[in-house]
Amino acid sequence: xxKRPQPRFPExxxxxxxxxxKQRELRYPVCRECNQVIFTPRTVCTACGSRxxxxxxxxxxxxxxxxxxxxxxxxxxxxxxxxxxxxxxDLDEGFRLLSGVIGVDDPTKDIHIGQRVRVEFExxxxxxxxxxxxxxxx
Length: 138
Ligand SMILES: [Zn+2]
Hints:
Elements: H1 15-22, E1 26-31, E2 53-58, E3 61-70, E4 84-91, E5 96-99, E6 116-122, E7 131-136
Antiparallel strand pairs: 1-2, 3-4, 3-6, 4-5, 6-7
This protein binds zinc ion.
């Protein structure tokens, strides 16, 4: 099982996001005043300043905006991964999430910009919050 770092609380901006991850839901806030999608999550709308936000659940489908491959990382929680990707994912609901693409044989060859991906939640050995990562579809 993976050992990626866990979020720490209290942290009011992202706590609902991580509570969603526990339910294997990718949640994101939307402003009720101006309909702006706010990501990374905040308690205040970054477009109009309103605090009247609604949390919605993403379908978890999107495309790879860009990515990089880390070939070696000696940080605890990453040392056992070998080569792994770090990727920005554009979700279909209109927000961009820094995550990674998993489930490929060779991350240096099997990931590309524009690739369709779907979220899945990776359970963590050292914590209760699964980490949202993306797997290619189709
Ligand atoms: Zn707003």
